[in-house]
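Give me the 3D structure for LysR family transcriptional regulator.
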Amino acid sequence: MTERVLIDTALRYFLAVVRYGSINKASVQLHVAPSAVSRQISHLEAELGTQLFERQNSGMRLSPSGELLADHARKARLEALRVVNEITGLEGIQKGKVRIASIEGPATYYLPYLISRFRERYSGIHFELIACSNSNVTRRVQEGVSDIGLTLSPPPARGIRVEKRISSPVNAIMSRDHPLATRKQVTLAQLSGYPLALPLESTSIRNLFDISCSRQGLLLEPVMVSNYVNALINFALSGGGVTLFGELSVRHHSDRASLAVLPIKDREMSSRTIEIQTLAGRTLPKGVAAFLEMLCQELA
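Predicted structure for LysR family transcriptional regulator (300 residues):
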């Protein structure tokens, strides 16, 4: 049994067009003819007496009325999913799926560790973990395609409930054999004499790093850049130099004992926060709510 049996076909087709941006793309995902999708959209517009989409060369763009219907349809689909999960697991948290969207750092080691622990108690719960950018984490939660989002220092977003927000400063990460490893903290100026491996310029860490270096008049050129968390951490672990991440990114690394994680004495590098997001106004399925509670308790 799936939530599809509780959701009107027209609303399902409407949501598919919203998500994929065109009738043709939606029809491929729905495994129906484009004409079938077009008929359902026309039916909705006729019933509601309003235009739901603005037809553009680039695709289908929601009208103001369409935005309202999209919010309703997403919540209706999520509520149907919750009801189905409750019906199939009436005797407790036996079945269900938890869908998580997260920035890459926590998705690499921290979340897999928590998921493994959770499933020791609730083995019938399955998980989907998607690593993506800050903005895509929030978008997935808003659209109802992810139940829980983990993101860094996000701007306020419509329709988002912040379940927890904590400080998540950027740290210097290096092997325990590194000359700086015995210090209690470091400054960016002290890192200037050592090879640096950094995330790409599009990341929050790199943005804060560049702002701080500019403010202090420092010129620190990385010897390696990567969009892959593991590559940067393993560079530091192998003694190649220093990388920068939040502590959460290495908390459950298999070689955590071989890493030194040092706070950086710096205004910008201490300003980051990590945020747990859910969709505002949604009643979460039992399995999702149970994992969310565990996540909020563990995230400290």
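The mean pLDDT is 90. Let me know if you want a second pass.
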